[in-house]
Design brief:
Structural class: alpha/beta
Number of helices: 12
Strand order of the largest sheet: 4-3-2-7-10-13-1-14
Oligomer: single chain
Mean pLDDT: 92
Distance between the termini: 13 Å
Strand content: 15-25%
Number of strands: 14
Low-confidence stretches: 7-20, 372-378
Helix content: 25-40%
């Protein structure tokens, strides 16, 4: 879309016939050309959202990172944070601001690719300065949510109301043992889901011990060494029978049908309280260097909001796409639109007309992600 198209969308965006009436929440956009200035840009976002202290003071905050794929997978030898991983300096700046705002505990989580060890070690392998994170605030913790971790049992989080595929999920305790859940995502397209933002980031909440391709049949496998393609993307195998199973199996084996619906089910069971999207440096054309045709870009943007659907709708528009696009319209080639599926379940609105955008104006901030003919990611 052109900037003119985006401006018209923000004024005349049609409401979906399937959408529930959901009050939209404010979304903030900030310019950030360098991670050296990420603290100032984040502070500007939080000020425009009504302040960080009201969200985190005296609370346990769990921050879900976006560390997609193996850390050995690099694009043109660039640092991971400048391509498809959330940047470590952004995480340090966020930690410091949350500490200053009175957060009691800050726990970083990620279901690391094919990894059952400590998250700290995975971060070190990815080029992160773990000590800098620990020094940024008191009470900083880490948990690899691919496995059981430090708890004695998994937490069962149920989907309120009708679910698309899964009525509940067995997740690492960190997703239940928290007051504030933050999705710290990257501004990217996705080969299967069209876009991967704060909602799609939560697909990684699911532990490979239960939902992985080498998960245990009857009980979790606490040493997973594989991804989730067969169990989650394609539905070719069941999760461990210790966890709730799909409602209707098999509804479909098509990843473009399954993954957007699983994302909505996960975000219904564990709602996002604060969505932050790293668009300072990223890639276009897909979610990682394994997707043919991806290339590094520098939109110079940070986006945040207290509703993940609202925030992702604005981020999708910033990428030059219509957040209300139907299946097979860019960027949702070969897949259903996760935003509209989430909207129909009452998780938020993808209608730009209903969203109050603060900070940088949307038409001035748009950074078009050109479609790639070599993948389905748009």
């Amino acid at each position: 879309m052109t900037r003119r198209d985006l401006l018209m969308l923000s004024v005349m965006a049609p409401a979906s016939a399937l959408a529930r009436s959901v009050p939209a929440e404010r979304v903030a956009i900030a310019r950030c050309r360098s991670y050296d200035h990420s603290a100032e840009a984040l502070q500007s976002l939080f000020d425009n959202l009504g302040g960080l202290r009201r969200l985190v003071a005296n609370k346990t905050v769990t921050i879900k990172l976006n560390l997609t794929g193996n850390p050995d997978a690099r694009l043109r030898g660039l640092p991971l944070g400048q391509t498809h991983y959330v940047h470590p300096r952004l995480a340090v700046a966020l930690t410091r601001l949350m500490g200053e705002a009175g957060a009691r505990r800050i726990r970083f989580v990620e279901s690391c690719w094919a990894w059952s060890g400590a998250l700290e070690e995975y971060l070190l392998n990815s080029g992160w300065n773990v000590r800098a994170l620990q020094a940024a605030a008191s009470g900083v913790e880490f948990e690899n949510t691919n496995v059981l971790g430090s708890a004695k049992k998994y937490a069962r989080l149920s989907v309120p109301g009708p679910a698309y595929l899964f009525p509940a999920f067995d997740l690492n305790h960190s997703y239940a043992d928290t007051d504030v859940f933050v999705s710290l995502a990257k501004l990217k397209q996705h080969e299967t889901c069209g876009v991967t933002l704060s909602l799609k980031n939560c697909f990684g909440n699911t532990p490979a011990s239960i939902y992985g391709d080498d998960a245990g049949i009857h009980e979790p496998n606490e040493l997973p060494r594989s991804g989730r393609v067969k169990a989650m993307h394609e539905g070719q195998r069941r999760p461990s029978l210790s966890a709730p199973q799909e409602i209707d199996r098999p509804a479909s084996h098509e990843p473009g049908y399954r993954m957007p619906r699983i994302v909505v089910d996960v975000c219904s069971a564990r709602p996002v309280d604060l969505a932050i999207i790293d668009g300072v440096f990223t890639i276009r054309g897909g979610e990682g260097p394994w997707v043919q045709g991806v290339a590094p870009i520098a939109p110079g943007l940070l986006i945040a909001g207290t509703n993940a659907v609202n925030t992702d709708a604005v981020a999708t528009a910033l990428m030059g796409f219509d957040p209300r696009a139907a299946r097979d319209k860019a960027p949702f080639h070969g897949c259903d639109n996760t935003l509209l599926l989430a909207e129909s379940r009452g998780l938020g609105s993808a209608d730009l007309q209903k969203i109050e955008i603060t900070g940088l104006a949307l038409p001035q901030a748009v950074f078009p992600f050109r479609s790639s003919a070599t993948n389905r990611g748009g």
